[in-house]
Amino acid sequence: MSPADVDPASRLLALEQAVALAAGRVDPQVESSAAEVLGRARERLALSGEYTVVALAGATGSGKSSLFNALVGAEIARPGVTRPTTGRPLAVVLPPPGPAATAGSGPARTTASGPDDLLDWLEVHDRVVVGGESPDAAGAAVVKARGRAGGLGTLGTLVRRRPRAVDGPPDLPTGAVLLDLPDHDSVVDEHREVAERLYARADLLVWVVDPQKYADAALHVRYLRPMAGHSPVLLLALNQVDRLTPREVTEVVADVRRIAAQDGLRDVTVLPVSAVTGEGVDALRDHLADAARRRRAATQRVVADVRAAGAALREACGSARDASSAGDRAAPRLVGALEVAAGVPLVVDATRRSTVRQARAVTGWPVTRWVGRLRADPLRRLGLGRPPALDALTGRATPATSPAMHEEEAASRRSSMPRPATTAGAQVSIAVRDFLDAATTGAPDAWTLAARAAVARDAIPDALDRAVVASAPAGARDPRWWRAVGVVQWVLLAVAIAGAAWLAALAGLAYLRLPEPPTPTWGEIPWPTVLTVGGLLLGVLLALVSRVLAGVGARRRAARVRRRLRSGVEDVARDLVVRPVTDELGAWAACAAAAERAAA
C-alpha cells in the first residue's frame, strides 16, 4: 500500500499530536510550518472533493499564460509583453457533467461544498465558468472569452465575484479548477506572495519551465526542492519546445529529469509542450483529465504535505529512546546527594542520641537521671518535636490527632536544621546535573533544555525539609520495658531509702544509748545494710544494663528513621527531578513516534 492510500485522517491525527507535543521545543519555523500544514489540510478536506485544483506556475516569460489558454482552448489569460505579466490569479471552473458521485477516494464526501467555497478559500476572485453564458451573473462584472478552435468551442463567462455553472459540458476534463498564477520571480512582492500561497493550496501543480531557465537555482532551491516527495501531485511542463530540434528536446527533457531527481522528485512527470504549435498540449490535457476523473489529487497533496511536515518534525525531534534505564542508574547518586543536603545523617545521629537520652531519662538511676535533662534533646534542637517520654515525665501528654491533622501539621511545620553547607549544595547541583546528563543523552537541545527547566531546583530545599519533618521520629512509641525498668528503679530506690532509714534509726538509738531492738540478719549481714547496699547496687547495675540495651534499640530506631527519611527523599527526588524529566522525555518519545507515523 502506497503512502497516499493511507487514510489521511490518521496522518492528520498523528501530525496534530506531534505539533502539540513539539510546541516550544523545536525550531519555531518547523513548528509553525507543521501547524500551517495541519490547518490547511483540514480546511481542504472540508471543501469539495468533486473538484481538483490544478495550478499553472512558472517564471516570467516561461509561456505559462499561453499554455493556460492552449489548455482551455480560449483566449482567457492574456500574455503580457511587459514585466511583470500575470499579476492576479485567474480561475477556470470546469463543472462535472452531472451529479458527482460522492464515493471514491476524494478528500471530502460532502457535496454541499462547491467551486464557490473552494475558490473563496483559495482567495481567487477572477473566475471563468466554462460552458456558456451564466444566467445568474447579473450585478457582477462579466467579460466574454473569445473561443479558440480545437478547444472549448463555446464561450465561457468571466465572473469577478461568485460564478455559477452554466449549461453545456466542456470538452476539457470535468471536475477541475484551472488556475493561472502570478510569476514566482515577479518583481512585485505582492504577486510573489499570492503565487506562493496558492502553490501550497493547489491539489496538482503544473510547473511550466522553458529551455532557457529550467535549471535556474532559485526555482529548484526555493520551490522544487522543498516539494521532495510530492511527485504524484507535481508535473513539470517543458514549454517552448518549438524552439528546439527533436534531439535537443530529448536532451533537455532528460536533463530536467536529472535535476528533478537531485531535488528529490525522481518520479515526477516531465512533458514537453508548446503553447504555440500545440505539441504535447493534448498529452498534458489527458494527464489533467485523468487526475480530475480519479479525484485523488487533493488527497495525495494532503498526504504529501503531512508527510513532509511529519518528516521535518521527526528530524527536529531526532531519534527518541527510553531514558528510564539511564535515569535509574543515576537516581541513587541523586538520592544520596539529596540525603546529605537534607541532613539525613544529622537526623539519624540525633535520633540515636535522643533515643538513648530518653531511655536514660526513664530507665536511669533516679538519683542521677535528672542530670541528663540539663542537656537539650538533639531532636528538639533540630526542631523535630518533643519526645513523648519527656512529655509523659513532665505531664505534657500529646493529645491524639487524626491522620489528616497530622499530615496537615507536618506540611506546615519546618525544622530548625542548618542550611546545607556549600559542599552539600554543590553535591546536589552536581547530582542533579549528572542525572539530567544521563537521562537526556541523545536528546535534541530543545528537549534537553525543556527537561532542565522542568526541574524545580528552588523548591528542592523546602521539599526536603518537609520530608524530614514528616518522617521525623518525634512521637514514636517507646518500648514497654522502659516503663517497667523505670518502675523497678523507683522500687529499688525506695528499698535503699528504707534500708538507709533503718540504719539511721539504729544509729540514733545507739547514739542516745537506748536499748536497740533486735535486728534481723541475712547470714551475718543485717537486713538494713542489705536493703541499702542492695538497692543502690542493683539500681546502678540495672541502669548500666538498660543503657546497653537502650543503645541497641537506639541504633535500630535510627535505622528505621533512616529508611523513612530515605523514602521521603526518594519521593522528593521523584516528584521534583525524576518525574518531570521522564515526563518531558516521554513527550519527546511520543512526539517522535507521532511524527514518524505522520511521515510514514
Task: Furnish the topology, listing elements before pairings.
Blueprint: H1 8-22, H2 28-46, E1 52-58, H3 64-72, E2 74-75, E3 90-94, H4 115-122, E4 126-129, E5 142-144, E6 146-147, E7 157-159, E8 176-180, H5 189-201, E9 204-209, H6 217-224, E10 234-238, H7 246-262, E11 269-272, H8 281-294, H9 297-317, H10 324-342, H11 344-363, H12 378-381, H13 388-393, H14 403-412, H15 422-439, H16 445-454, H17 460-470, H18 480-511, E12 521-522, E13 525-526, H19 527-599
Parallel strand pairs: 1-8, 1-9, 3-4, 9-10, 10-11
Antiparallel strand pairs: 2-6, 3-8, 4-7, 5-7, 12-13
Helix pairs in contact: 1-2, 1-9, 1-19, 2-9, 9-19, 10-15, 10-17, 10-19, 11-19, 15-19, 16-19, 17-19, 18-19
Please tell me about this protein's structure.
The protein is of the alpha/beta class. It contains 19 helices and 13 strands. It has helices at residues 8-22, 28-46, 64-72, 115-122, 189-201, 217-224, 246-262, 281-294, 297-317, 324-342, 344-363, 378-381, 388-393, 403-412, 422-439, 445-454, 460-470, 480-511, 527-599, and strands spanning 52-58, 74-75, 90-94, 126-129, 142-144, 146-147, 157-159, 176-180, 204-209, 234-238, 269-272, 521-522, 525-526. The strands form 3 sheets. Strands 5-7-4-3-8-1-9-10-11 form a 9-stranded mixed sheet, with helices on both faces. Helix 1 runs parallel beside helix 9 (297-317), helix 9 (297-317) runs antiparallel to helix 19 and helix 10 (324-342) crosses helix 17 (460-470). The longest helix has 73 residues, at 527-599.
Spatial gap, N to C terminus:
11 Å
Q: Which geometry do the CA atoms define?
A: rod-shaped
Main β sheet profile: 9 strands, mixed
Total beta strands: 13
